[in-house]
């Protein structure tokens, strides 16, 4: 894992060992291939322009990827767009980090239905517990 941007609780953005990129905001972790991240970043930057021109029609913004929607207060948009842009610049060439190609991100556990225990800071128990969800 390589952290590209960190400003909790608003967001942390990191590259996972499988070549995907993750946006963590509040208690939501959204993983996606790099090419989708760059598409989302382009949309975020367009939204920022509308916000700065006073043309954003709502006090909130919904950032959507697949079936996940992150709702943010519009006042968070400048910092969130900055985070996205910094992360996009840092990961344009993922090969320099020694990660697998983004097309392999489908192997990442965030793409599979799972229930897992979250580690507690300074916890003595370092086991990872993941229970796959039955698709039926």
Please describe the topology of this protein.
Layout: E1 2-7, E2 11-15, E3 21-25, E4 28-32, H1 34-52, E5 60-65, E6 68-73, H2 77-90, E7 114-116, E8 130-132
Antiparallel strand pairs: 1-2, 2-3, 3-4, 5-6, 7-8
Short description:
With 136 residues, the protein is of the alpha+beta class. It has helices at residues 34-52, 77-90; strands at residues 2-7, 11-15, 21-25, 28-32, 60-65, 68-73, 114-116, 130-132. The strands form 3 sheets. The protein has a 4-stranded antiparallel β-sheet. A two-stranded antiparallel sheet has the order 5-6. Strands 7-8 form a two-stranded antiparallel sheet.
Overview features:
136 residues, alpha+beta, four-stranded antiparallel beta sheet, two-stranded antiparallel sheet, 2 helices, 29% strand
Describe the structure.
The structure is a single chain. With 136 residues, the chain is of the alpha+beta class. The chain has helices spanning 34-52, 77-90; strands at residues 2-7, 11-15, 21-25, 28-32, 60-65, 68-73, 114-116, 130-132. The strands form three sheets. A four-stranded antiparallel β-sheet has the order 1-2-3-4. Strands 5-6 form a two-stranded antiparallel ribbon. Helix 1 (34-52) runs antiparallel to helix 2 (77-90). The longest helix is centred in the first third of the chain and has 19 residues, at 34-52. The mean pLDDT is 78.
How is the main sheet built? Answer: 4 strands, antiparallel
Q: What is the string of helix and strand elements?
A: EEEEHEEHEE
User: pLDDT below 50 for ≥5 consecutive residues: which ranges?
Assistant: none
Give the neighbour order of strands across the main sheet. Answer: 1-2-3-4
Tell me roughly what share of residues is in helical segments: 10-25%
């Amino acid at each position: 894992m390589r952290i590209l941007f960190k400003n909790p609780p608003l967001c942390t953005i990191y590259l996972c060992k499988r070549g995907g990129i993750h946006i963590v905001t509040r208690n939501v972790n959204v993983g996606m291939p790099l090419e989708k991240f760059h598409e989302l970043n382009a949309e975020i930057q367009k939204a920022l322009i509308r916000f700065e021109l006073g043309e954003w029609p709502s006090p909130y913004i919904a950032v959507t990827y697949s079936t996940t929607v992150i709702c943010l207060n519009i006042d968070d948009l400048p910092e969130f767009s900055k985070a996205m842009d910094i992360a996009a610049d840092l990961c344009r060439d993922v090969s320099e980090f020694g990660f697998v190609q983004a097309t392999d991100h489908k192997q990442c556990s965030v793409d599979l239905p799972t229930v897992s225990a979250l580690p507690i800071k300074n916890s003595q128990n370092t086991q990872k517990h993941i229970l796959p969800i039955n698709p039926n």
